[in-house]
Amino acid sequence: EIRVPAPVERIIGQLNEHGYEAYIVGGCVRDMLLNREPGDWDITTSALPGQVKELFHRTVDTGIQHGTVTVMVGKEGYEVTTFRVDGEYEDGRHPKSVAFTPNLTEDLKRRDFTINAMAYNKATGFVDEFGGVEDLRRGIIRCVGEPMDRFTEDALRILRAIRFSAQLGFEIEERTLEAIRVIAPNLAKVSKERVQVELTKLLCSAHPERIALVYKTGISMYVSGTFHEIYGAGMPGTVNAPEDYSGVRTEENSPAASGGLSGPSPIPAIPVSIPTQKHLRWAAFLRNATPDQAFTVLKDLKLDNDTISRVKTLVDLLGQPLTPEKPALRRVMSRIEPALYDDLLDLKEALLPFGVPETGDDLRRARALSGEIRRDGDCLDLKSLAVKGRDVMDAGVKPGKAVGETLAALLELVLEDPSRNTRDYLLQHLK
Ligand code: ATP
Ligand code: MG
């Protein structure tokens, strides 16, 4: 059983003593009921931001315009937000306007899903006005209020619904899923960074295969053109959309019957044995794309350059068989960082049951040989080549591009056979 941390209890106690209501709210209440460790503890209160600031020594105005004050306890910060009703959302996180309310229920009503719209404090116990406990028990993601309205207010909620479904292994309730299909085009208005954060959380969840829902609900084309192109053939929004998306709803093809996952999935398996690092999960997901497509998708979604280049390299190398022979392995190892090479082997191993271009024996052999290559300290890059640019120029190669090309050719010889990595052999070869 997860308990409310002492500083959180103290903050709530302090607010109560001064006559204000205060509760923990949202994700932490959901996670507590699921016996999961909450990521953060959010507090909601009837006190206005100025009143919160008067009660605590150290506060930071982290989101004062939205009613949020961070109360510092030691090095930890706890967000305390005044009960509020929201205007329209501009970026999925921050509404354009907020109005404070003295009423907890009003605050809970603005929240996205029933399981995220519960509050708790010791004196009152759980406040659950929208059936969140029941939906948690049944494993259902359901909008608070009218789904069409809620997704129209903030289209990011569309991706949040799918992301929570993947993190918790929950089904999306039928009317909520239907509204997702209808409001899908609004996702085009959501910032790519916010879309990326949700997709990354989805891929790094316990059910990454649920990214299929992004295609099956018809939102993939609003994520990015290339994203849609990769696995979207025959999906909603394309000319050959399958029957069960034609709008005729029967009991069998009702989206809720299978969480919207009915019909064949073009998404390759993403085994959860793959560690939850974003470059690994993205690479597994994008492995049937071309490296250029992978690059474009991640660029569109504003991922950091480091992740983009790692994923592109992994997608490229996942598609090519690793030849279990030292020269071929040295060539691959010379192209990428040691850590990324290890990632490549781990990925290929995790994907073995789902089809990779090599056999399990090849992979085991490759792993053993790469271990030897490292232990023996075989030359894998220009840094450890026995001759430098200077030597090449002394041997008569004109300064400029030719020097680099010559060094690359010499490295190629050494990758083939590391015993060639001596000044004598390489200078001899230059002549
Ligand atoms: P996580 O585990 O990802 O932190 P969370 O539920 O805590 O999940 P947050 O983004 O931290 O999600 O938001 C905290 C709470 O604020 C949510 O539980 C929900 O009640 C509310 N909320 C967040 N984003 C939205 C939104 N776009 N629309 C409506 N309510 C939202
Ligand atoms: Mg949270």
From TrEMBL:
Q: Does the keyword tRNA processing apply?
A: yes
Pfam families noted in UniProt? PolyA_pol, PolyA_pol_RNAbd
Which residue ranges does the record assign to the Poly A polymerase head domain?
A: 22-142
- Keywords annotated in UniProt: Magnesium, Metal-binding, Nucleotide-binding, Nucleotidyltransferase, RNA-binding, Transferase, tRNA processing
For the region Disordered, give the residue spans: 242-264
Q: Which GO biological process annotations does it have?
A: tRNA processing
What highest taxon heads this organism's lineage?
Answer: Bacteria
Similarity remark: Belongs to the tRNA nucleotidyltransferase/poly(A) polymerase family.
Instruction: State the protein's name.
Output: tRNA nucleotidyltransferase (CCA-adding enzyme)
Q: What is the lineage of its organism?
A: Bacteria, Bacillati, Bacillota, Clostridia, Lachnospirales
